[in-house]
Amino acid sequence: MSEAVEAVEARSLWFTAPRRAELRNETVPAPGEAEVRVRAAASAPSGGTEMLVYRGEAPADAALDLPTLEGSFGFPIKYGYALSGRIEELGEKVEGMAVGDPVFVHHPHQSRLTVPASYVVPLPTGIDPSIGVFAANLETAVNIVHDSPLKLGETALVFGQGVVGLLVAQLLRLAGAGAVLTVDPLESRRRLALALGADGALTPGEGLVEEVLAATGGRGADVAVEASGAGEALQDAVEAVAVEGTVVVASWYGTKPVDLSLGQNFHRGRVTLRSSQVGMLNPALSPRWDHARRTRTVVEFLEDPRLRLGALVSHRVPFERAPDAYRLIEDRPAGLAQVLLTYEGEQ
Hints:
Elements: E1 8-17, E2 20-28, E3 35-43, H1 49-54, E4 70-71, E5 77-78, E6 83-90, E7 102-105, E8 112-116, E9 120-122, H2 129-132, H3 135-147, E10 155-159, H4 163-174, E11 179-183, H5 187-195, E12 200-202, H6 208-215, E13 221-226, H7 231-240, E14 241-249, H8 265-268, E15 272-275, H9 291-302, E16 313-318, H10 322-331, E17 338-342
Parallel strand pairs: 10-11, 10-13, 11-12, 13-14, 14-15, 16-17
Antiparallel strand pairs: 1-2, 3-6, 3-8, 3-17, 4-5, 6-7, 7-9
Helix pairs in contact: 3-4, 3-9, 6-7
């Protein structure tokens, strides 16, 4: 156990208004007896949920769903949930961890942080911090696959090839999909999806459903996952699945209205709409799966060579320029995938 017991200074990122982010100074307390202090190495802004919060499209009165978040969705808010680093200090009752251990924490972007040891996920020794941050999106992707009824040899259709969609497509293949089709408006993302093993990369819009039907012998996809955050994609997903097909809705639309026409394939095709949210496990799996088992599975996937996680990192931005990262994600330049905030030189 370290002998240091003093508070330290740090910087954190806050959203102060729609599309406005700033760094603020913080005093981080010494860890209590069951706490740890972590020095950040990298953190990963989310291109989906986090950008919805950044744009002010989350319900202002929604409850914060992580104990590490601060503020409110009505602004200001300290938001984020994918940070990796190393343990810097340990409380006297913390067991099974040591100073210097690599860890992951569901925590907003911050250079140093003190949290209960129970919030910390130990990572494999020697793991690259830029890989460790994928624990959050992998957790979401594993949950989405668990919420899908995909059977061996079936066709999966994934809308949105941001980081979560790319991970879902790869995991569906590992889960036994006979073919994985992806949909995204950006050519660079479609190319990346194909490079990572997708069987097809389609463009949304007119003619998409016909392309899916042609690729599946007229049947439609057995399972579709909507991970794009675009409400119109949900309509396409409903129209593109087979009779008795399932659409897993992984997107959080926030305050954006979503209009659906349910008079055609949804009704006659007996289509199932299934919400997937990472905070809850599929209840059908509860005799065998709990949050701890899912976390262990995610950590194992971080080192699985079949998932090319390093290929998803497209940009690295020093934490001192963190507000620029959100403008970059908003602009969606060619080649954008996962943007990382890096903490070299931070206190």
